[in-house]
Amino acid sequence: MFPTKRLAQGGFFRRSADELGRLSKIAWNTETLHTPTKPYSILNFENESEVKACKTMADRAVGGFSTASLDFEPADPSTNTPSHARFHGTISTKLPENWRVERTGYAAFRNQDRGLWLFGRLFWDVDPYSYLALRIKSDGRRYTVNVQSDSIVETDIHQHRLYTKHHRVRDAEDHNDNPESLAELYPEGMPAALSDVPPQSTILASSTSTTTSGGTGWETVLLPFNSFVRTNHGYVIEPQTSLMRQRIKSIGIGLTDRVEGPFDLRIHKIWATNGMGEAEHEEEVRICGADALPIDEGVRTGWTEEPAPKPEREQRQQQEQRSKEKGLKGLKGEWDE
Questions:
Q1: Structural domain for 4, as ranges
Q2: Pair 6, 97 in one domain
Q3: pLDDT tens, 208-248?
């Protein structure tokens, strides 16, 4: 078989054409000269092929008993439910007979290697963006978002807890971790981004009820790229290094809370963004209902225009309003402080 034929069968030329087309659009729109205002799609699970292109992992690989599946779920127009991926299974902390295995109770999924294109391996470049956005429907369990870049240490993973409105805060008796194991995992103390108690800055809606009037259960979560924590095999690594945003090779979600029982997480899309723009807001409202994020002013201006001077009283009122916001502007301000 000729090399060109083998590359064509693997989608090499299609990937190259898609990436060149994307880069050409960026250059044509001069997006490199200012903050991008359009979202950068990473994983769109409305496409069944993207669901099938992901891989699942569980402790069964070492003899454990946890299970993990990622299935494509078609759209349901009657409830405005979009096509999406369903990450589900069961967590078990039962140990196998293999005496070398001391800990079980995990499941995860991620995209597989994106392959090659004309200039080498294909990565996601999210450097111009501030947030990783996920539109999800959660059962409230303590999921973790895992991002892997083309770093020097190949097994490094940057992580952030997937805080949602339904996030269940860990009770004292609702876990199997003892103080010694926690100290081993987090020798410098538990990072805020991995804490079981959601930081106020990550709560993007004021609702705490799972039956909010007008809600659909779907919500969009924004996680700042600069708050992800560097880990290796579940351990926080020092010194901490920033996520290499220019060369992201995999993104996925894991469940390591070690609470026995079923889990069920729905994922519609994962993308990089600088906020919620007008073009995306219609879809946001249609899917998320009352829990939809508001249009963010930063997207409309691109955070590049200098605001005109305003009266002192108006500035003070805006500062008070900003401190109460739960949308992207409030989130951005709190994380930057």
A1: 1-33
A2: no
A3: 434 445 678 999 999 999 999 999 888 888 888 889 999 99
